[in-house]
Amino acid sequence: MAISVQHVVVLLLTSLLIAITFFLFTSDNIRFPLPSLSSDYTPLPKSSNLGVSSDQTPQKMKMKLNASHDQEEEVVKWDLCKGAESVDYIPCLDNRDAIKQLKSRRHMEHRERHCPEPTPKCLVPLPDNYKPPVPWPKSRDMVWYNNVPHPKLVEYKKEQNWVKKEGEFLVFPGGGTQFKYGVTHYVEFIEKALPVIKWGKNIRVVLDVGCGVASFGGFLLDKDVITMSFAPKDEHEAQIQFALERGIPATLSVIGTQQLTFPANAFDLIHCARCRVHWDADGGKPLLELNRVLRPGGFFIWSATPVYRDNDRDSKIWTAMVSLTKYICWKVVAKTVDSSGIGLVIYQKPTSESCYKKRSTQEPPLCAKEEANASWYAPLRQCISKLPSGAVQKWPELWPKRLGSVKPQSVLVDSKTFKKDTEKWSEIVSDVYLERLAVNWSSVRNVMDMNAGFGGFAAALVNRPLWVMNVVPVDKPDTLSVVFDRGLIGVYHDWCESLNTYPRTYDLLHSSFYLGDVTQRCEIVQVVAEIDRVLRPGGYLVVQDTMETIKELESILGSLHWSTKIYQDRFLVGRKGFWRPIKPVL
């Protein structure tokens, strides 16, 4: 029986289709070797394809959790967090049961961390009508109202121009309690009061206490200054959430009973504009904590009514401040009032301990030596932090030179190791992260490095229109001082707990050979749930790790309906979508 040409063609095509299908189902991901990233690394052509996409979308997925679980296969099933405020859920700050059991709230204990056990693995729901954030730099001035639908501050601070609602947007005019003529006028007022403050040169890293919606820090970005703005989660509804939605560095924190999660001698300048902190309370512990994190020779700017009003209440506060600053050897270098009637005083921390020794009374005393990661869950101390040894008057160098410099006689890193680490990260970021990975960097503004080391990843990105929160895990070597010395910002954190930040506040999280280690202390599913909480829809997780860790992450991210891409045996890019579990029918 004759076979037509058409039959032959059909048979050939069918055979070819079967062969292709067999190949795809019996082969591992096609992998292209990455070059070793060494000093003699030769970049591949920019068109090189280094990855194969793996988009997985089942709500339930079998996966191996940990080797410590005897390779037992378990089912990951995700549920939405419950409660009226679940859309903005912060586990360690919203633990109502623990807060109810507090014996005192006098020192802001209810605003501090109280982490639930076990760590929640639920997913926070999205606000109704949530949409991708307004891109930077437009976001500094306006954000989508539906992304942060909190109207309280609009009404509460309407006379002070903090924030206004205009149609679909929240608009930030740059006003503030102390910024009657706007933040631009206020910053110029500071410059005139003390010209030695040269923004973006000798002043690079700033701490803004009780920051409101962070307009002060947002404006200083134009002057090449990076400001860590912080405030508690309190009745000033969602102020830190507003700041991060705007693309301005910020974190939730409070000066209560525990030390701030920063190293000693970190900030070039600290600012407080009506920040409502009683500096002389509890024997002066709040101001002694500022003294701990302020760099030798650094400045403290205090703009508050006790500086420029003389009623009984303000006079008493000013008298107490004069006494306390005298005993910690802070010197007044400027005190003035501007045309709006707002005044400020600028103090400077000493650069040597000679003043401490000359005091008529040794109260408060000098503290013992600082320990590594000492400020994680550490109580405030009623003592003066010791100054670092060496030529503190000559350190740090002016920005941007300090970015590539290491402190002389540093006990944390030698210059050779520091240089090698800087070069390594410059190479990886420029040749792989920016050129090869499936990341749309034009949409990335808020970045977090989960295991920052010396800050090399952030340093390599410093010329891009983004900022990096450098996290030094408490179970790793304490290198956060090096990060601040470079002119970068960061915090200590334990990744087995939740971060002090709102949901949907970062565009990209980065981890380098860390997620495999943290699973020795807690379940990786808990850590991924926290990553999902922090990342915005459309945001990225970029991981450099072993293939064992990467494959484990790929499975979990697939159960979250994230898209994933593996780059041969070393890199994983996960992208979060808008998927959430179906709400249960009540």
Explain how this protein is built.
The structure is a single chain. With 586 residues, the protein is an alpha/beta fold. It has 16 helices and 20 strands. It is globular and about 65 Å long. The protein starts with a helix and ends in an 11-residue tail after the last strand.
Overview features:
20 strands; seven-stranded mixed beta sheet; alpha/beta; eight-stranded mixed beta sheet; EC 2.1.1.-; methyltransferase activity; glycoprotein; globular; SAM-dependent_MTases_sf; single chain; transferase; 26% helix; 586 residues
In brief:
With 586 residues, the protein is of the alpha/beta class.
Form type: globular
How is the quaternary structure best described? single chain
Distance between termini? 68 Å
Average pLDDT, to the nearest integer? 86
The helix fraction, in percent, is: 25-40%
- In DSSP terms, counting alpha (H) and pi (I) runs of 4 or more, how many helices? 16
The major β-sheet equals:
8 strands, mixed
Strand order of the largest sheet: 1-19-20-18-17-14-15-16
- Supply Rg: 26 Å
Strand residue content: 15-25%
Strand-pairing-aware structural class: alpha/beta
Q: Let me know the number of strands.
A: 20
Identify low-pLDDT runs. 20-73
